[in-house]
UniProtKB/TrEMBL annotation:
Family: Belongs to the ABC transporter superfamily.
SUPFAM superfamilies: ACT-like, P-loop containing nucleoside triphosphate hydrolases
Positions of the ABC transporter domain: 24-259
Protein name: Methionine ABC transporter ATP-binding protein
SMART domains per UniProt: AAA, NIL
Length: 363
């Protein structure tokens, strides 16, 4: 299944080789702090109109990556292209207009408390020296987009966290950036507000074709709205691909660990009864995704391999409209050839099969 899934994931976007479609392109980026390699050869691209999620644990290198992107940090080596222009060697003066091509939203919103909501939203245009009427018209348009028109004259202190982030999003879009960079933008919000902010970002991505780079440590955020994901660990991209393919078939240990509870698990009472030695039943974990998960896999298995098996747990989820299934099967008896027949059949259908263990008594 590995090759099958990765192949379908990577060919899903035909713009891969076309660099004019890259809003951001990082090439072999390296940055050390003393003995720490904060970025250790990062290469990645963000394509026009896509949502790319970058996920990693604390200290993985995410902030250093952002700082290299907006020119606050100079890499020791490597290149940073924003809309085709290499920025890592530019001086402060040349960086200013390029920075405006990147709108940013932050975990703690970073609104100016002494300014009204509309003035916060219009601030990037004020910095650009745009006339007041134009600034206010743009602020009104954006507040309408984020559903906060009635709060134009309010001050940030009177808003909820979710409303503050909506203002942050409107402000980030004011100067019509090429890229929206979201730095842990939902990490301070409760789950329901997080969902509404993520839905808003997805809406804006669809409506305006806005390119979004999401930096997060939460897989749920990636799963909700990203098209592709890149996993960073110790300054390296350890895995990347379309979200559904990485969720269905995580290659690296760190990705599996970040996926944690999001991946279906055997119920704890059953997991506690697993033994390594052969018992009355063998418990299999079967992961299957994409085309392979849309067919009648279990009925085909029953037809192809005579003999019993039971579904004890699992189901089929949908990520990016792709079925991603995890099934836990129990195969009774000590007939090794029956078990081998089941495993061989499932693998022939691009499923990934793992023997989790055995239980002494039927479950
Ligand atoms: N200015 C600095 N001086 C020394 N070490 C640094 C500096 N900036 C980053 N580092 C180190 O580089 C590594 C990557 O840090 P970075 O802040 O980029 O990670 P992160 O993924 O953003 O972490 P977090 O999610 O906790 O913000 C860490 O080991 C960090 O201690």
């Amino acid at each position: 299944m590995n090759q099958h899934i990765k192949a379908s994931g990577d060919t899903a976007n035909p713009t891969r080789a076309d660099t004019s479609q890259h809003v951001v392109r990082l090439v072999d980026l390296k940055r050390r702090f003393g003995v720490t390699a904060a970025l250790d050869g990062v290469s990645l691209t963000v394509r026009k109109g896509e949502i790319l999620g970058i996920i990693g644990r604390s200290g993985a290198g995410k902030s250093t990556l952002i700082r290299c992107l907006n020119g606050l940090e100079r890499p020791d080596s490597g290149e940073v292209f924003i809309e085709g222009r290499e920025i890592s060697r530019l001086g402060e003066r040349d960086l200013q207009p390029l920075r405006r091509r990147i709108g940013m939203i932050f975990q703690h919103f970073n609104l100016l408390s002494a300014k009204t909501v509309e003035d916060n939203v219009a601030l990037p245009l004020k910095i650009e020296g745009r006339p007041k009427a134009e600034r206010l018209a743009r602020a009104a348009e954006l507040l309408d987009l984020v559903g906060l028109s009635e709060k134009a004259k309010a001050y940030p202190a009177s808003l909820s966290g979710g409303q503050k982030q909506r203002v942050g999003i409107a402000r980030a879009l004011a100067a019509r950036p090429a890229l929206l960079l979201s730095d842990e933008a939902t990490s301070a919000l409760d789950p329901e507000t997080t969902r509404s902010i993520l839905a808003l970002l997805k809406d804006i991505n669809r409506q305006l074709g806005l390119t979004i780079l999401l930096i997060t440590h939460e897989m749920e955020v990636i799963r909700s709205i990203a098209d592709r994901v890149a996993v960073i660990d110790a300054g390296r991209i350890v895995e990347q691909g379309s979200v559904w393919s990485v969720f269905a078939d995580p290659r690296s240990e760190i990705t599996r660990s970040l996926l944690g509870a999001i991946r279906p698990q055997l119920p704890t009472e059953l997991a506690a009864r697993l033994l390594p030695a052969a018992g009355a039943e063998t418990i299999l974990r079967v992961d299957v995704a994409g085309e392979a998960a849309s067919g009648p896999l279990l009925s085909d298995l029953a037809t192809a391999v005579p003999g019993a098996f039971r579904l004890v747990h699992g189901g089929v989820d949908h990520i990016q409209q792709q079925p991603v299934g995890t099934l836990f099967l129990s195969v009774p008896g000590s007939d090794v050839s029956h078990l081998a027949g089941i495993i061989t059949f499932l693998k022939s259908r691009q499923a990934r099969v793992e023997v989790l263990g055995h239980v002494a008594n039927p479950v």
